[in-house]
């Protein structure tokens, strides 16, 4: 099936029920430069359900993906786009081997994923599981995500987001950001991540913002609770010096204020000695960061915490901060 755009408004609630496997063309060019392969737009009361698999057949596209170094790279289609969809649910279907992000959620309200599955190999480039932005009351429940980039990435303008009972791995963890690159960004507020298991991921719980960038919209009200880390390279990380592929410099600090962030009941194993890394902005240091019962080990010994421009409140068993080494 080539690219489809299912566009409202609709006159009644709509259910799309899918069994079997739907295949995208393996050659990225056959999707005619579309941002998304299967797109739902301007629909209220949508249900997408069934046991179906949407297979993006992305192996060819991953080999061609040079977008990390080439700003003029060829566009690669995501499996799903949900744009300006309200009061809707996606349940029990599978997104497989997307050429790009598996799912993009933009401008949605009261939108739920329940029993959703994402299955991409860990080597697949830029295949974020679910990316959201400019959306309110998105819930990701009872979902399993295996991918080559962030399992879930929370972009600007995401408000009142709930992530509950999710398994992530392989992948790069659950990320807020990256943020700060643009002045047009909106704040990220009120995120709950609870009962999540990370297995073999590059990161666990991550907040990332760009230095030497103009964006100022704050990140506040972030709560992580009941999290298990199984051999996660960087389990808990705030990185306000995020600069992949050396696309920026760190001459001026990030302008984004991070506040009211709680890490509660975090347990498991770290792949690095510093299981907690809080690298905040020197211009707007982090405030009201709490480490409550953070019990991580590295090679059988307690993992440590490194901090920069952050003075976390420590409750129960949790590592005490040591100064981060100079960059």
From TrEMBL:
Which controlled-vocabulary keywords does the entry list? Cell wall, Cell wall biogenesis/degradation, Glycosidase, Hydrolase, Secreted
Q: What is its main location?
A: secreted
Q: Which Pfam families match?
A: Glyco_hydro_28
Matching entries from SUPFAM superfamilies are given as: Pectin lyase-like
**Does the record bear Ribosomal protein in its keywords?**
no
Q: Where is the active site?
A: 172
Q: Where in the cell is it found?
A: Secreted, Cell wall
Family assignment from sequence similarity = Belongs to the glycosyl hydrolase 28 family.
The protein in question is named Polygalacturonase
Q: List the lineage, top down.
A: Eukaryota, Viridiplantae, Streptophyta, Embryophyta, Tracheophyta
